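Narrative progress, year one. The postdoctoral researcher (J.K.) led the effort to move from monomer predictions toward full complexes, under supervision of the PI. The following entry was the first complex the group processed end to end, covering 630 residues in total.
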Amino acid sequence: MIYVNLRQLRFLVAIHEERSFTAAARRVNATQSGLSMQIKELEERLGLRLFDRSSTGVTPTTAGDRLYERATRILREVSAIENDVQTLSGQVSGRVQVGMMPTFARAVLAPVLERFARHYPNVEIKVTEAYSAVLCEAVTNGQLDMAVVPSGKMVPGLKAEHLATDVEVFVTSPNTKRTHLEPVDLSKNKPLKLALPGPGNARREKIDTYLETYQVPIDSIMELDTMMATLDLVSRSDWTTILPGCLCLPDIDDPRRKLHPIVNPPLVVDYVFIEPASQSKTQAAELFADEIVKEIRTTCTFCNSKLGAADAIAG
Amino acid sequence: MIYVNLRQLRFLVAIHEERSFTAAARRVNATQSGLSMQIKELEERLGLRLFDRSSTGVTPTTAGDRLYERATRILREVSAIENDVQTLSGQVSGRVQVGMMPTFARAVLAPVLERFARHYPNVEIKVTEAYSAVLCEAVTNGQLDMAVVPSGKMVPGLKAEHLATDVEVFVTSPNTKRTHLEPVDLSKNKPLKLALPGPGNARREKIDTYLETYQVPIDSIMELDTMMATLDLVSRSDWTTILPGCLCLPDIDDPRRKLHPIVNPPLVVDYVFIEPASQSKTQAAELFADEIVKEIRTTCTFCNSKLGAADAIAG
DNA sequence: GATTGTTATCATTATTACTGATATCCCTTA
DNA sequence: TAAGGGATATCAGTAATAATGATAACAATC
């Protein structure tokens, strides 16, 4: 009656995401041979091919895609059973491993951590700060339960949810003629010296597109993948940078730098919440996620009102 | 990582529904010993008890109930995979086994069968006419894909959906003073000679309650579990009966009997659609179900307008 | 054409599940 | 109170299933 089993579904999901039996085998701690036989078995039982094989890898057939969708749903529900156990066995506990893009380190993360730790003292929290590619990777292979990253190209095996849209802010040193919080049209500016994150960074790509599209004059660009150093550099030189609103918010009145909403048009960054597609969150993880999401949403709303260019444009 | 497997879930569901390892083992074609070991394994892995055992049988714990809910959902989705295969492999085909309460034999079933067979010539249809208890049993153990029955006490392992509410109609021979389609208040009547289905029949129970509650005077009751004989008896004697509107509709103008909406208050019957809780319908079954449901709903609406007591009460 | 990196296959081994007999428990009944 | 019936648990042996490691076959790349 029931041909399919969970092992086969797990294999199918891994192969589908890795586009390779070999890589999938590595991921699920099995041998390529084993996967090959299991998928063969599954295909024979169902009477249709799930993957087109070649010596360079595999591509899922239509049926393979369809089954992948179902399989992730099923596996997520199965993992929910195991999470239920935690819930049923009483108080909230366990370990939550979260990835965060650097943007949220202060404005968002700190208050959430404080609150959460107070409410759920038995939950062990581990936060990793990294750029989106690293975080996506870590979530995919189960090292992290979830992460918040800037939106970018989708990684297979992840379930993503849009959280909020934030404004990007132009940051300069105090030694300029512009006044603090005055909007700026980057394309009508003298050539910029910009400190930006390196290529590959999701925000960087969006910024590059913006600079090109609106022909923003550039003097030179420095690659700095560290927020702290960037801020420091900007405040003590004529280098400038572009940072997400959420990151700037805690320092909005800091005299060491000036913030300028970007207009014509505004430059924005979208934050997305990612988690493994075929796994459900533990109760602790769910609660933590709720807090994070709430905090990010309110912070972004606040950013938009304080640093958004909406008023500037209208005025 | 993944402890639970589908076999365990299937066992859990069977045991939960049968309230017995032994009976469940029979149902899933396995031994009591095997189930015992699998559930033991599952309980140990999850770290909690799923059933409280006694020598009289077994009762699910809270955790057992919770898991049962999840398990049925998961198994339904897994069976959906297998149904997908049919769908993916092209045209609609397969075998659909439906159970029908006798009420629908003519007014509803015939047109649906005709239409469906024309649209989907490759689907093999098997219809079984029986009373609700038999149909529930057959759906539970997989002999039928689905059934339509009068609402009554819920059987575990079934997923039910309310279809429509129909009026019950008082049926007499032509040799009475009453005029055809004239509403009747049964409690203000001379003692009745009623032919009714035997006890255990779901409609009978509802009728009994009605007769008692509104103190309908009864001369005598005959138990007839055959619609055809009942109709025949009524038309040729002073015996009367109570039948669902849907059943009467095709004969509404037949001079061999008279129909009377029941008022003060109206007596109604609810139809429900049942299917196995832990299995999803094949595409063919889904299409057939849609047709049946649609037909029953329109028929009931029609019944209510033709045979309903609403107007009578208002007037 | 050698090399690298795929997947498929096969015989063997390891693991897992099932079976059937039996033990144990509890409730009912004589 | 003892016997009987019906339930689940346990155990050792067996059967079924899955994983392994080596190898083959193939395609792309250098």
